[in-house]
Write a structure and sequence with these properties.
- By secondary structure, the protein is mainly alpha-helical.
- The chain has helices at 7-30, 36-58, 62-81, 88-114; strands spanning 3-4, 60-61.
- It is elongated.
- The N and C termini lie close together (11 Å).
- Keywords: Membrane, Transmembrane, Transmembrane helix.
Length: 124
């Protein structure tokens, strides 16, 4: 299990925190709080993304990033899995934020796996 801590990793994690907070706030900002599944999914999924990103700020492990990829996939697919695809603001919010989470986390994983060996922190 690889770990790395540097500025690039911190930037990716802070970006994911911001995306999670944006997803949590989206039901109020975009007016879909009356849509139960859409708003609850935004709050819970956004909370999961924020939690995982904050854990990654302390020290990045690859398993945290893989869980973030899974969360991003869930967020992207949730409008169809939870049947709120007809709520246009909720659908596009989930799709865009989910895809952004996937992209930024994939970049972070790429950085984690391709980091120079002297940047790697050995786990004891």
């Amino acid at each position: 299990m690889g770990t790395v801590n540097d500025r690039v990793d911190t930037t990716f994690s802070i970006t994911n925190v911001a995306l999670g907070v944006l997803l949590i706030a989206a039901p109020w900002l975009l007016g879909f709080t009356d849509e139960t599944w859409a708003s609850r999914n935004a709050w819970v999924s956004g909370g999961v993304v924020v939690l995982l990103a904050l854990l990654a700020l302390v020290r990045t492990y690859d398993w945290e990033e893989w869980l973030n990829v899974i969360a991003g996939l869930w967020i992207t697919a949730s409008p169809w899995l939870l049947w709120f695809e007809d709520v246009v603001p909720a659908r596009w919010t989930h799709i865009i934020i989910g895809l952004c989470i996937i992209v930024f986390t994939a970049l972070e994983l790429r950085h984690l796996y391709l980091a120079p060996k002297d940047m790697m922190i050995s786990q004891r």
